[in-house]
Amino acid sequence: MSSRFETVSGVDIVYEAVSPQINIYWNPESDKGSITFQVEHQEWRKSQTGDLTFAGRAPDKRNEMRPLVVPLERFVSDVLDIALPDGTTMQLSGGMLVLAVKSAFNKYYEQKEAEAEAEADADAEVPPSYDVQAAI
């Protein structure tokens, strides 16, 4: 996370660059593509207890949402520092993240296909016949 801290009129403000939308473009034939991060800067206000409260997008024209495009080949070859919730960091290759995304896609796609098949099978079941003459 890239953040910048400053105090304005006695209020601590944190500006943070975030990517609320990430798109992966991949050509399976060439194994090439890009990852596009839509970038915006957010403003957070720090209370006396240290809690951060979202205050909105930073009021700077350069902070308008704009894309940051990284070639997939570069992303796969990079080693990334991953910040863990306990404050420590671990290193992970971009290639492992790409494999994790691909595995997640396979899992959810297969689940959706199985659900669609089960729904189609349920719709195809013929209701038991009803003998109108016997009911009279």
Question: SSE layout and pairings?
Answer:
Blueprint: E1 2-8, E2 11-27, E3 32-46, E4 52-57, E5 66-71, H1 72-77, E6 79-83, E7 89-93, H2 94-124, H3 132-135
Structure, briefly:
The protein has 2 domains: 1-72, no CATH class; 78-121.
Task: Summarize the structure in words.
- The chain is an alpha+beta fold and 136 residues long.
- It folds into two domains: 1-72, no CATH class; 78-121.
- 30% of the residues lie in helices and 45% in strands.
- It is built from three helices and seven strands.
- The strands form two sheets. Strands 1, 2, 3, 4 and 5 form a five-stranded antiparallel sheet that branches. Strands 6-7 form a two-stranded antiparallel sheet.
- A hairpin with a 2-residue loop joins β1 and β2.
- The mean pLDDT is 81.
User: Which radius of gyration do the C-alpha atoms yield?
Assistant: 25 Å
Strand portion, in percent? 35-45%
The biggest beta sheet is recorded as: 5 strands, antiparallel
**Overall number of strands:** 7
Terminal Cα separation, in Å? 75 Å
- Average per-residue pLDDT, rounded, comes to 81
- Give the helix proportion (percent range): 25-40%
Count of alpha/pi helices: 3
Features of the shown structure:
alpha+beta, five-stranded antiparallel β-sheet, two-stranded antiparallel sheet
